[in-house]
Amino acid sequence: MTTTPVFGITGWKNSGKTQLVASLVAEFTARGLKVSTVKHAHHGFDVDKPGTDSYRHREAGAVEVALVSGRRWALMHELKQEDEPPLEDVLERLAPCDLILIEGYKKELHPKIEARRTEASERGPLAVSDPNILAIATDHELPDEVLPVFHLDDISAMADFIETHLGLKRSSA
After folding, report:
1. Is the pLDDT of residue 83 over 60?
2. Cβ(149)–Cβ(135) under 8 Å?
């Protein structure tokens, strides 16, 4: 089990999750924290391009392919017939950091902010059935909401909320 603090952003498709996570990463990084992220995808995806050497390695049957350069490295793991790994297993593979922000994973038990936007694919609130949702980030009025409500653009206030909830310490650097 990871000892790194985790906090999630959840919501329906097109609710603003990705923009919110990216903005929070920038905010926490500016505050001196080292942040990693995990994004859940419900569909097949590929970070590699047909014709590249690493793609050819995977197509030939490699279970894992590490792509390394002087600027970054990536590890791709083919699940083949394996089940999707539990979130905890993914968290354990991340390098040490100060905070892990998780996008998606609606059913996991970590603390979360629910993103709601008028353009979302669905509008039903998730918080009513998930006690791990501690606040709402939205672009529209929610007059009857009992949880703390932030505007989707109020990144600083949400970062303060997350920092306080997790007891994060800012770097002195």
Report:
1. yes
2. yes
